[in-house]
Amino acid sequence: MRDRAPRPKGPVDSGDDSNDESGPRRPKEERPNTDDLLRRMRRVDPNQARRYRQRTGQ
């Protein structure tokens, strides 16, 4: 019986000099204010705004 060949320990180096930040990243945007969101929801459907508040614990 043959011994198994050892597997590489990490990802194979592609050869180019790319840094760790070359992948996709989250855009730097501010999150919407939840008070503003609830106010807009209340204008559209008051019952939906109440259900959303209960679901999120607001």
List keywords for this structure.
mainly alpha, 58 residues, 2 helices, 38% helix, 0% strand
Q: Mind sketching the topology for me?
A:
Layout (H helix, E strand, L loop, with lengths): L33 H11 L1 H11 L2
Helix pairs in contact: 1-2
Written overview of the protein:
The chain has helices at residues 34-44, 46-56. Helix 1 packs antiparallel against helix 2. The N and C termini lie far apart (64 Å). The model has no long low-confidence stretch (mean pLDDT 73). By secondary structure, it is mainly alpha-helical. The protein is built from two helices and no strands. It has a domain at 32-58.
Briefly summarize what is shown.
With 58 residues, the protein is mostly helical. It is 38% helix and 0% strand.
The tally of strands reads 0
- Strand-pairing-aware structural class: mainly alpha
Largest β-sheet summary:
none
Portion of residues within helices: 25-40%
Strand content: under 5%
Low-confidence stretches: none
Mean pLDDT: 73
Shape: elongated
Order of helices and strands: HH
Tally the helices.
2
Distance between the termini: 64 Å
| Rg of Cα set | 25 Å
